Amino acid sequence: MTSSCKAVDAWMQHPTKRFMTDDIFTSLLRWNRLDPVQFQQEEHPIYSTQMSLSSMDSGLVEAGLISAWYSPQGPMISNEDVRKACAAHPGRFFGVASGDIRDPVRCVQEIRNFVQNHGFVAVRILPWLWQKYANDPLFYPIYTACVELGVPLCLQVPSVIQAAQCGHYPIDGRLQEVFEAIRGGKFSEGEPDAQAEFNSILDRLCNLQAAGTWDGDRYLVIHDFPSFVDAQAKVDATYKDKATWCRLSIQAASSMSRFSTDRTIAEYADVIWGVKPARRELEPVVVGSVPVPKPKAECILKVDAIPKAARPVKDTLRPGTLSADAKAEPKQGKVNVQESDAAADGSAS
After folding, report:
1. What is the CA radius of gyration of the chain?
2. Residue whose C-alpha is closest to residue 208's, from 176, 246, 182
C-alpha cells in the first residue's frame, strides 16, 4: 500500500461456491452481465483469498470483517469457511459469526464457540433472508448471547420489497378510502368494462406480497403515497413565502441538467441559423420586499461571419429568432432584437 490512510471493511464476505451459485444472486449477476455458469468451476479465482486481498489492497482497505451467511436452505458461507480464511491471513481477515436461527440452542452454541475459541469479533444475521423481522422471538437468544459475549450484532433490516414479502406493506388510510370509492363504482359511471379495468389495477396494487414486482405495486406507489402528500403540503406552505419560493425556484432551475431539446436548439443555432452566443449582463435581482427590477432584454445576435446564403429568410423566421427583415443588410454587422412585453407570448418586436 502506498498511503498511510487505511480503512476497515466491516461488511464483507469471502465468497464460496455455495454462495455464488445460490439462486438469490441470479438477478444480481444478470444485472452485472455475469454468466452464473462460470462460478460452478471450483478453480474460479473469485474463491481464492488472494483475490479478496487484492481487492482490499486496491481500495486501501487494511482489514476486513468477513461474515458467515446462513439461510433457510443451509449455510452459504459457513463459520468454518470464515475461520479458515482468517487463519490463512491473520491481521487481514476477522471473523463474523452467524447461524441457523431455527435451532436457537445450537445456533447460540456455535456462535459462542467461534467467538470464544476462534477470535470472531461480531455476529451478523439477515432477517430478510429468513423473511422475518428483527423483533422476531427466534432472534432473542442470539441478542442475549451477543450481550453476554460482549460482541456487536450486525443487522440488515428488510427493504420495502423484502418487508412486503414478509407480509408487511401497509396502505395509508387516505389512499384506502380512494380505493374503496373506486371499487364501489363511483368513477366508472355504471360501465362494466371500466369498472373491471379499475378493479384489475387495484387488485395488482393490493397484491401486497408482490410489491416491487410486475405482479404487484411495481413502482411502490402505495408505499410512497404518504411522502407525496407530505411533500405537496410543504410545497403549499413554502409557496406562501414568495421570497423563499423565488430563491428555491432559481436554485432548482439552475441545478437542472440539460434537456434533449437543448441539443436540438444548439444544432439549429450552429448549423441552420449560424448564430453564436452573445453574453449580456443583467441587472441584479433582489429577492425580498424590494420589487424585482425588470432586466434589460436586449439580445445581440452576431451575424458578421454568416454567409448570405445561410442567413434565414423572412419566411423561415420563428418566434424568438430574428424579428428584423433578414433581407436587409444588418447595420454594423449586428441585428438588434428588442424584447417587449409580448415576448412572453413567444414573439419579439
Report:
1. 32
2. 176
Answer whether 121's CB lies under 8 Å from 111's CB.
Answer: no
Residues in a beta bridge with 75: 70
Tell me what pLDDT residue 22 has: 87
pLDDT at 336: 41
Instruction: Please state, in angstroms and rounded to a whole number, the distance separating the CA atoms of residues 78 and 97.
Output: 8
Report if pTM > 0.70: no
| pLDDT averaged over every residue in the chain | 79
Mean predicted confidence (pLDDT) in 90-105: 94
pLDDT band for position 320 (cuts 50, 70, 90): very low
Environment class of residue 110 by beta-carbon count within 10 Å: exposed (0-12), middle (13-18) or buried (19+)? buried
Contact between residue 268 and residue 321 where contact means Cβ atoms under 8 Å apart: no
Structural domains in the chain, CATH included, are 7-158 (3.20.20.140), 170-230 (no CATH), 260-345 (no CATH)
Average pLDDT of the residues in 81-95:
95
**And the C-alpha cell for 211?**
410489491
Residue 236 C-alpha cell reads as 403549499
Grid coordinates of 11: 461488511
320: helix, strand or coil? coil
DSSP category for residue 334:
E
Indicate if the pLDDT at residue 5 is higher than 80: no
Strands, E assignment, the chain = 7-12, 61-67, 69-71, 74-77, 93-97, 122-125, 153-155, 299-302, 334-337
